[in-house]
Amino acid sequence: MTTPKFLAAASVLAVISTTGLLAQQSKGDVRTAKPINQSDLPSQLRPEAKIVKGYVPPKTAWGDPMIAGAYTNSDESGIPFERPAQFEGKKLADISQEQLAAMVKQRQEQTVERTPGLSEFPGATSPLHWFENYRAENSRAWLVTDDTDGKVPPTTPEAAARAAARARERSRHGPADAAEDRSLYDRCITRGIPGSMMPAIYGNSYQILQGPGYVAIKYEMVNETRIIPLVSASNNLPHISDKIREYLGDARGHFEGNTLVVETTNFTDKTAYRGSSEYLKLVEHFKPIGPNTVEWSVTFDDPHTWTRPWTFAMNLTKVPDAQGPFEYACSEGNYGMHNMLTAARAEEAEIKAAAAKGIVKAPSVQDPDEGEK
Amino acid sequence: MGRMRHAFAGLIAAAALALVAGVPLRAHHSFAAEFDESKPIKVTGTITKVEWQNPHIWFYVDVKNADGSVTNWAFSGGAPGQLMRRGITKEALKPGQEVVVEGFRAKDASNNGFGQKVTYPDGRNVFTANAPNQQ
Q1: CATH no. for residue B92?
Q2: Of B30, B33, B81, which is closest to A203 when you measure between CB atoms?
Q3: Distance from CA of A13 to the nearest CA of B (A)
Q4: Single pTM value for the model
């Protein structure tokens, strides 16, 4: 009975019970999640994210607002992307600090509950020290900031046709026939933009660097530096030719007051974020809102994909430079790729051997894009 | 009955995932694509080599078998950056050291594995920050 599959289902049931739903069904039928020993939880070294109304950041030697520093957004792990149904009709600003605090506490418990791979659970697969997103002190109730309905807008028929074509193409080969079947993330190439700044279980470290005429952002996972030339009245830098396409796109920045605004175009069709097209125009705002905090908001303008532009936002929190990005030179020992391919070959051999004995064995279900977003 | 309960649990699981789906909690590689959680392994042996490199560290352990032969096992661990932020450096694992490794075997049935829990002979966790040897 204690198969991993059952444990996974059971832990999810436990999550439901914490939300107060279906508590009756879960009674007596669910593994009681052993409480994580608090002293085993890795502590995070983060300054307090103090938000100051009307905050004015210091200036660099050449007069740009100062946003440089090492940052993390591990604290934003686990925030629902869209407005949860329970807040129907509400705007982000309607959620009180008390409501948010209660929600954050519940999410912290859920993060532990819904990760049956933790070392405290039977059948665990991942040790605690892998997780940098425990006790995430979320800054908000959900991510999409549009006050219309707090949802990502509907996609266009063109986007649906594109997704169907992709799925057809994918179905022509297995999830791990060759390295090219794995995601760009598995292959240590890129998580794209904004994927490179979406919090994962670890690797949520960034370094913002500034120089006259430039801002650069180093993303720990998977080890990329994005150069953002700043445009000004005297230095109008048009985007590169639309014939040139880049994984991270072509970025141009400028300051509006103390906020860094970055417009990125020239994406490829290989780094779709939530199904975006290569014609996506992404506009990011990096707004200093306190001595240790920058609000990062991201607007998607892509008529080839969504019926209207939409925006999500989260906070980046400063950390000591020593806790900043560590070189994640992912290709230097990516044995994972080898192991995934040999695992797929081993499974094929098992299926074949079973078939020879008249047993039909289904291949395990794998999401080839797992880890991409 | 058991089957029905499983089907029900599956449905509930899907509903619950929809409820709690937030920013995805993802590691770099999918554990399930590489390792087999139905094949746990526990060995005691001597470290022969440590590759403190990205995206995951790997360390190799010579393990004496019952027949006197020796097998060299390879185990993966966390990413150097994530370990560094916990104050765990490559000093934590050294060739010649004896360790106990509990983990899961690779799906390809090779001598590769996922090092889930690694301890020194005295029981201390290798990857626990603030262990006396890492202060």
Answers
A1: 2.40.50.1010
A2: B81
A3: 7
A4: 0.82
